[in-house]
Fold these 3 entries.
Entry 1:
Amino acid sequence: MTDVREIVACSPSAACHQAVTRTYAQMRENGADERVAFEAAQKVYAWHHPEVPRDRVPYVIADWLP
């Protein structure tokens, strides 16, 4: 199986990367549970990258978040 991170390489300056990290950070700052913030970040990433299988999305963004 090909690693999705090799297929969709997003730099920290990419719009999708910024949107994902901003979503997570703002939700956490506003008191959202970590799980809820992570799920929201996954939805943002999936919107930017519909070609990535949904079950792979958490693995792609996990490295981006604190």
Entry 2:
Amino acid sequence: MTAFRMEELRRLSRRPALAPAPPGAVSLAMGEPDFPTPAPVVEAAVAALRGGHTHYADQKGLRELRAALASGLPARPGRTWTADDVVITHGATAALAAVVLAMVGPGDRVVIPEPAYSLYADLVVLAGGTVDYVPLAPDLHWDLDALAAALPGATMMIFSNPSNPTGIVHGEQELKALGEILDGSDVLVVSDEAYHRLVYPGHVFTSALEIESLRDRTVYVQTFSKTYAMTGWRVGYLAGPREAVDAAARVHRTCDGSLNTAVQYAALAALDLPDGVVDAMVDRYRRRRELVVAYLSGVPGLHLAPPEGAFYGFLRYDAGLPSEVVARELAERKVMVRAGAEYGPSGEGHVRISFAASEDDLRTGLARVVGHLGGARS
């Protein structure tokens, strides 16, 4: 990597290193389920190890796992998804890295609606591309006019749905509007749908792969981490246009090699879990969301758009301080949050709160946030 690119990454990236909360502090910073991985998944990994599945797997992933994932993708009229359309990766992080490094080169422009997950911009810089941030509309949905102005000539657009950090769900009509904007262009869409199962009442999730005008240009990125509480297992995957998938597969096998074989058998077991296992976790997130919205509602100086999906609240504050300063001050008050500036220029003046934490930690952490930024709660 050139010195220039390293300097650009230092300037652009505000991603903190992962670290546990210090003693006495509560963390509302981590995008990690606090639930244990379901027992059948753990048992499948143990059985795979005892069964001798301790050697290299196919570098694109176990064919049976890829086939199972392909069968679960949204229907594609005129062509059936197969195992060859899927690549198993070291979490969604590696899937995103593989497709960006494979498809973006020096000088290529990548459009990122922001605030957005900070990894996207970092990867574009690593690939030598140029990040073209497009601020969201006031309701935190896409500003379609701004996207229409930015997308001509772009190589790629990257977004998450439901969104990290805003908790917004980009619905069917919004996605169709994007497809109309992109009609006739060669822009590749990367849709990170890690939180697809975490959608709250009144909102409906639609995959980009379900939209006819987006289907053939979309690289779908997914992970087992959020849905199945499998963050440490590092199982992700991507699917999409064969040219992009094959290129990403070459990057992934070069940089990462094949994924842990026993873990892939555990992922197969996760796909066989009854819906009720995931639904129970989603219900807990729903109750935590309600707790967060109720606690912060009406607090002077604080403003929260109720999350529609995922497990984040993107909290705007009136205090005239940089978000990194606010996050540091809150850490001194024993509550960890993420600075909004990490997620792009429009994130300044916000902090991201994760409600993938216990109800007790949420109450404690929110009280500390309100006490610092909004005054004492009556």
Entry 3:
Amino acid sequence: MAKEAVNVQICNETYVLRTSAAPAKVLKIAQNVDERMQKLATEKNVQNKEKLAVWAALDLAADLYELQERYDKLLAAVRER
């Protein structure tokens, strides 16, 4: 599949991402990252973009970990039947 350039805005910075993913999906994901970083900037009073990026990455990783645990439990329950 051909890669397409998608412009996204995160913390008032424009990034050009070359990806084969659907542009609408890429924009939605970037919006999620931007919202988390903006929220953390306000809640934690952090202005350093590198620190905000790490906080956002940790938040997203925690969400992914929790979802994976829930998925694994559901899958185990289905297999037990």
